[in-house]
Amino acid sequence: MAIVIPFSWLFMLLFVVSVVNARILKLPVSGNLISDGIHDSGNASSVLSTSNCVHTYGFFPCADNIGGYIFQIVVYQYLLIIGGKLVTNGSKTLFNILGTGVYGASIFRILTVLPKMVMVIVSGVLKTKAGAQVKVTFGVGVYAGSTVFNLTLLWGMCVIFGRRELFPRAASTSGSSVSNCVMAKEKLAQLKDTGTTIDKKTCYTAGIMLLSLIPYIIVQLADVAKSSLETRVVILIALIVSTALLLSYFLYQIFYPWIQERSLEYTKYENLLTGFLHHVQRHAKGKLVDENGQPNIHVIRGLFHQTDQDADKSITFLELEKLIHEIQCGKVQVEKDYAMSEILKVFDMNKDGRIEEHEFLEGCTKWINEAKQIAESGDSSGRIRNVFRPKKKRIGITEIEHLMARILKHAHNQALEEEHLVTDDGRLNEERIKALFKQFDKDNKNSLSWTELEQLIYNTVKSGHSQLNYQEMVKKLLSEFDTDGNNIIDEHELAHGVTKWLNKAMDVTKCEDARRSIDEFDKIMWGEVDDLVYEVGQGDNMKLELLTWDFHISTFKVILGIAILTFVSGPLMTSIQQFSDAIGVPSFFISFVIVPVAMNARSAILAIFPASQKSSRTSSLTFSEIYGGVVMNNMMGLSTLLAIVYIKDLKWDYSAEVLTILMVCAIIGLMAYTQTTYPLWTCLLAFFLYPFSLVMYYVLQYVVGWGNQV
User: Residue ranges of the EF-hand domain (predicted)?
Assistant: First the structure.
């Protein structure tokens, strides 16, 4: 809602200006005018007629005055932002789950531009030819405004927040003897001595952005066409070229997935953060953060000593590898090499290849604070927010399913390879059961008593000792295993119960590998499966077996977001058109400026965070995402527009928007393609291009007359 409030004030300002009264000379009313500013004309537009208030879809509210239009715009814009957020978060989670492939190369790319694309599709498909001409113009303005916003304001802000010293600076002279001229010269020198650096792959992405301009150049030939037939031929050629480029872009990413991998890399840091913190929380004897929201140093120190298995007061390379392997067995799958490199970069402050206790404490504290910032931004997955949430589901937990899952895993993991709880053919290892029984039977009475069962539960369930109700858990265990009702469990009862629960684990996980089913059953019962599918290894093939909660939620978010965008886009454009007509403000100002800024403000804030890390890698990923978004905005947006114009035989009135996109993309694209360094002065160029493109668009549309808007 915070994003909408600034634009609400802008609409209120326009409202105040529109209702101010002034002394105006009486002028004769022209029959061609709706109003002379004082008197209503007899042929007033139905937009302002109280008798023609139409409810969209039959139940959406309608308005017939400026205040009503403002209210509708604010509400519809807020709903549009909510819909876009649902689509973005849902598609992002699905991308993290599915990884690179057909989804990442095509569907994910389409979903990134869907909020803007829906505005054009809904207006062009659901409207008559006359209505579609006006509505599609509004949608195209949003397209153009979004591209210009991302390559000017957002691009410039990322340069500012990601800047660092490009060259070693000489020691600055201090003292009162320094003249103002010298100080001003030093300030100006920062414009070229500071900036951000990017890698070559970011340059290649900028090159792809330049190639996406080819159909824009072709479609501009429609302005020199001498007949409507020639115009349609030009539009058809541009449509074919644009569609071919779009499909080629998808296929290129499938066979050469480095663009997908960079997009996945953009969220990989958050994944590592999530996996690491979940591992800490899962193995900690307490909460990761205290009641004041600060890192719990005692808990973090305990994990350090647990990881430092040789007790040499430092975590070695081999111990770090084991830690990462344990993280990979948790909720989030992280790439081993990336995790090793990133953890050493953050934790190993003296670069000696070992992580000492104070380094571990400082690194964990840094990551906890960063994770809190990501969680508070509202764009993180539920998994990272859960790190800072009380584990309510473990308070008073007594479910036998949870307990047995952990007992099976404990017994299985403690065994040697030749003494696994189950054999290779899936049968229960009776010798291992006997050894397990003797391990639990502390008093050697050939039975497991109440006290021994309590100790068994205590040793098995490591997390949250003080929160577990051991009395209830022992009762559950006895009711499940004690078949003769004597309140003790003998060896036969233990073997029978373990066999029963092993079969249940295999049935729940649908896993034919009994050994693996134990680990996966534990993950499912303790809510530690957040992947799209449960993957069962069968030789070299991976069989998709189990759709999990995270997948369903993410898919539901995408579907709900698309539904909101579809139903709200049309009414929003109608309200904006009515509002602009009522106060005499050109509708392009709202479609080109207000709506794109509102729709992209949230993504701009989120892009600034990685850029502010001031490293070449994070800056490269940030700018790659900007260029990739513009590529999809260009090709998908133009293909959609040309298809609607050609199919509905609309008049081509969008040359001003196309030329504006060409100008901004060409200037920023050429600079980005040829340089791996963006000095600070380049942000001034980017900021200048925004008002310049706005003025150029206005002049072309309303002065030169490239469009037919009034």
Answer: 295-330, 342-370, 428-463, 469-504
Is 190 in a helix, a strand, or coil? helix
**What's the chain's Rg over C-alpha atoms?**
32
Alpha-carbon distance 180 to 334, whole Å? 53
SS3 44: coil
CA atoms within 13 A on the CB side of 413: 14
pLDDT score, position 20: 37
Residue given tokens 């100008």 in the structure block: 663
Domains of the chain: 288-389 (1.10.238.10), 393-547 (1.10.238.10)
Band (pLDDT 50/70/90 cuts) for residue 547 is very low
- Token digits for 400? 């036998």
- Token output for 360: 């571990």
Q: Which of 361-375, 458-472, 518-532, 556-570 has the highest mean pLDDT?
A: 556-570
Q: DSSP string covering 619-657, please?
A: HHHHHHHHHHHHHHHHHHHHHHHHHHHHHTT-----HHH
Buried b / exposed e along 352-373 (16+ C-beta atoms within 10 A): eebbbeebbbebbeebbebbbe
Which residues of 415-554 form beta strands (DSSP E)? 533-538, 541-547
What single DSSP character describes residue 168? P
In this prediction the pTM is 0.58
CA distances (Å), origin 249, targets 26, 91, 161, 628? 61, 19, 31, 11
- Supply angle C-alpha 30, 36, 37, rounded to 5: 175
39 contacts 30 by C-beta, under 8 angstroms: no
3-state secondary structure of 678: strand
Q: What is the pLDDT of residues 655-707, one digit of tens each?
A: 888 899 999 999 999 999 999 899 999 999 999 999 999 899 888 887 887 75
* 55: helix, strand or coil: coil
Helix crossing, 595-611 with 66-98: angle to 10°? 40
pLDDT for residue 601 = 72
Q: Give 377's contacts (C-beta < 8 A, 6+ positions apart).
A: 605, 606, 609
For residues 623 and 158, the answer to whether their CB atoms sit within 8 Å is yes
Helices (H) and strands (E) in the chain, counts: 28, 7
End-to-end CA separation in angstroms for the chain: 33
Query: Both tokens of residue 529?
Result: 């499966």
Q: Rounded CA gap, 530 and 667, in Å?
A: 43
Gap between the Cα atoms of 26 and 249, Å rounded:
61
3-state helix, strand, coil in the chain (%, to 5): 70, 5, 25
* C-alpha to C-alpha distances, 536 to 178, 500, 513, 522, 542, nearest whole angstrom: 72, 21, 8, 15, 6
Contact present, 299 and 285 (Cβ < 8 Å): yes
The pLDDT > 70 percentage for the chain reads 59
Instruction: Give the angle subtended at the CA of 209 by the CAs of 203 and 214, to the nearest 5°.
Output: 135
